[in-house]
Amino acid sequence: MDLDIHFFKGGENVLKSETKEDKEPLEKIRDSFGKVLDGKNLSFLLGCGCSSHIVDNNEVGIPTMMQLAKEFYSEVLKEKGSNELKEKLNLDVSADKFKNNLEFFLGTLHSAEFFYENTESSKKEEFELVKNTIQQVKEFLIEKVLNEKKRKEKKDQPINELYEKFYRKLLYRNTNLPKANIFTTNYDLYSEYALDRLGIHYVNGFTGGIKKYFNPTIFNYALAERMDLSQTKWSVIDNFFYLYKIHGSINWIEDREDSKLFQVREIQDATFEKLKDEETIMIHPTPLKQNASLGSPYSDLFREFQKKLMQNNNVLVTIGYSFSDEHINNLIYQAFTIPSFRLIVLGAPTKNSEIEKLKQLNDPRIWIIGGALEDGIKLHYFNGFVESVLPDLSNDDIDDKIENAIKTLLKKNE
Questions:
Q1: Is the same domain home to 133 and 215?
Q2: Does this model's pTM top 0.85?
């Protein structure tokens, strides 16, 4: 029996509407989402909730940004460090804007660092405090996001399996349609691990061989195979995705190579030991020295995000994203100026939340899917979405689709 499942199209929960269909609620959701996969332009936005997974009350993946903030303040910064920041910098980590958002805290520290670096000031003690705190945050994030200990002990296997299943299911999307775009705010490497294990090719903005450097023009390329040796006839391969890490990645570093226009390099086989001494790890809002916090590569990635959203007949599916990033939200809201744009939110419209505000717009182009099943699994969590919402097309299903397509074509030709 399904419990508390919701499927809002605009402000209406269609699961409570009287229809002639006898389908179960979960089946209705899955069927509707199956049609979404057949849409022309499809994009996913994976938030931090997608890499968090609780097993027996223990986090086996990566905590959400809220949990990371709480853990850093209580276990790393501690009361002494918090008091020092408040006394010397007037920076109160218990303030609402900091206590649940480690990214905002890091961005503020970088702003302070930039100020002390570029002004003639005698406040060397404050400058050192800022630099030391940035280093603490950096090492904490590297350790947490790489999740090396749990990876070695294979405790994070449930996360690996979820990401693999997610990408494997997306491969069944109609191969004649444009390739799906995967946007993520996560710094972790679970998408890359899954794609590598599955042998799926992906473009993530980096080109090169031994050293891979950021080059956003690669997002305009596709991987194709030659179909006819006697002619210039090519076909884009089926197992291919575009992966956009719009907040950067734990394995991206600043590398001042003079011959490179974009001085961001991707580290292969990233480990804590390799990364801890790197001066600049490219995680939002870490700035390159010559740019503001939304300079390259972030500006290039956000531009790609906006470009995809503004395509006709584009569907954006958000999972594990709480709509707490105003920059991302603004780009999504701008996309509603395109009449054919559709937003599908996997989430719960709790009181005063951004998702509830979206529901209150009563726009049928906005779908909100979530709720709990009998076994406690929530549909709007990544595991609930992958296991219960995202269709798993069997060979029989594919054969049925092909047969129906043939019948449709025959009818048109009669």
A1: no
A2: yes
